[in-house]
Amino acid sequence: MAVLGCGASGLRARGRLGSLFPVVSKPFCSAAAASRPLDAQRLAEKLRAQKREEKLKERVPTNPVQRRVRELARFTKQLQRVHPNVLAKALSRGILHQDKDLVVISKPYGLPVHGGPGVRLCISDVLPILAKMLRGQKAEPLHLCHRLDKETTGVMVLTWEKEMAHQVQELFRTRQVVKKYWAITVHVPVPSAGVVDIPIIEKEVQGQRQHHKMTLSPSYRMDNGKMVKVRSSRNAHLAVTQYQVLSSTLSSALLELQPITGIKHQLRVHLSFGLECPILGDHKYSDWNRLAPQKLPAGTLKKLGLEQSKARHIPLHLHARQLILPALGSRKEELNLTCKLPHFFVRSLSRLGLEMPNQDQNDK
User: Fold this and answer.
1) How much is the pLDDT for 258?
2) Largest CB tally within 10 Å, which of 54, 156, 238, 335?
3) What's the CA gap between 213 and 285, in Å, rounded?
4) What pLDDT, in 10s, does the model give residues 251-271?
5) Nearest to 339 by CA among 322, 327, 357, 317
6) Marked catalytic residue, from 101, 125, 149, 360
7) Facing residues of 184 across strands?
8) What pTM, to 2 d.p., does this model score?
9) pLDDT averaged over the chain?
10) Any catalytic annotation for residue 360?
11) What whole-number distance in Å separates Cα of residue 222 and Cα of residue 238?
12) Taking a C-beta distance cutoff of 8 angstroms, is the pair 107, 320 a contact?
C-alpha cells in the first residue's frame, strides 16, 4: 500500500504510485483530507474520473473525414513518442524488398529521416535496432542512401554495408536512379504534361515571422512584353522536373512527377510557384509571404468535408511512388521498387473524384 503525506508542497504519493502520480496539486489537500487521508485506490479513481471528464468535454467531430484528419494528426505526433523498438518493428512490417545488399522500406508520414531541433525520434535512430531484428543481435546498423522530407511518404533505400551505401548515393548523385512521385494538387496544371526547368534558390521571407524558403530563380523575365534573359544568381541551383497529369477534375489533379535533379523541396516549389498548382497539404509553399495553413477553394473543402479552420490538419499529399535502381554489385538486372499509397492519400483521391491508372487499382 502506498503511503500518503500532506505537507506544504501538497499531497505526495509514494511507493508503487510514485511513478504514476508523483505530485498532486493542493486542491486535494484540505483540512478534511488531513484528518482523513485518501487511500491510494480512491486517489487513483478520482484522477481517472477527472481524465474521463476531460475526454468527454473534447469536441468529437461527427464528420468521418474530420475524424480521420484528427486521428492522423495524433498519429504523426505519436510516431516520435513511441519506443524505438516499436518504431523499428513498424518499419520492418513495411519492408518492400530485401536482399544481401539492400533493405527497402516504406517511409511513414510525419517521420523525419535525420535528427534535429525538436525531433525526439527519427529513422536513423532506429537503424541499429531494425538491423538486429532482421539479422540477429550481432548485425551491424543499416545505412541510409538518400532522404525524404518528414512529410513525404514512400520508397526509401537502406544498405547493409557502408561501401554499398556510397555506391547507391553515387547513382542518385549522377542521376542514374529513376524517381517517380505521385502528388495531389490544388488546381490543374496547363499543359497536362511537360517539363519545368527553372533554377531554385533559398531566400529569406520578410514579414511578421521571418523565415527561409526555397523559391524560383528564373533565367528570363518579361520586359515590356518581351522575354529578356537575366543574369543567374551564383547561389541558384539547376532544377528540372518532368510532370504528367494522371487524373483531373475541375479543381484538382493527380500528378506523376519525375525529378531529374534533386534540389531541396524541388517538387513543391516547381508545382506551387512554377505551375501555380500547390500540393494538397503543403502549408509552407502554398503562399510565399506567410507561414499559414493552406487556403483551399470552397469546392475542394466541400469535397473533403472540411472547414478552412481545419485545413491545417491536412497532410502533404506527396508520395515517393517508384524507384528504379540500375544493376549494382551482384545484381545483374535493374531493380524496380514500387510503394503503395498511404490510406489518407487513397481516401483523398476518392473524395476529390480522382482516379488512379488501371494498373494501380490494387492500391485502393
Assistant:
1) 98
2) 156
3) 8
4) 999 999 999 999 999 999 999
5) 322
6) 149
7) 254
8) 0.78
9) 84
10) no
11) 20
12) yes
Residue appearing with cell numbers 510503394? 339
Please state the separation of Cα 143 from the chain's center in Å: 21
Cα distances (angstroms) measured from residue 158 to each of 102, 328, 335: 6, 14, 14
d(CA 352, CA 300): 7
Confidence band for 68, pLDDT divided at 50, 70 and 90: low
15 Cβ contact partners less than 8 Å away, ≥ 6 residues apart: 1, 2, 3, 40
pLDDT of residue 235: 87
Chain centre to alpha carbon of residue 27: 42
pLDDT band for position 28 (cuts 50, 70, 90): very low
Which residue type, as a one-letter code, is found at position 2? A
Identity of the amino acid at 126: V
* Distance from C-alpha of 215 to C-alpha of 195, rounded to nearest angstrom: 17
Output the pLDDT for position 273. Answer: 95
Q: Residue 312: in which H helix or E strand, if any?
A: none
For residue 152, what pLDDT band results from cuts at 50, 70 and 90?
A: very high
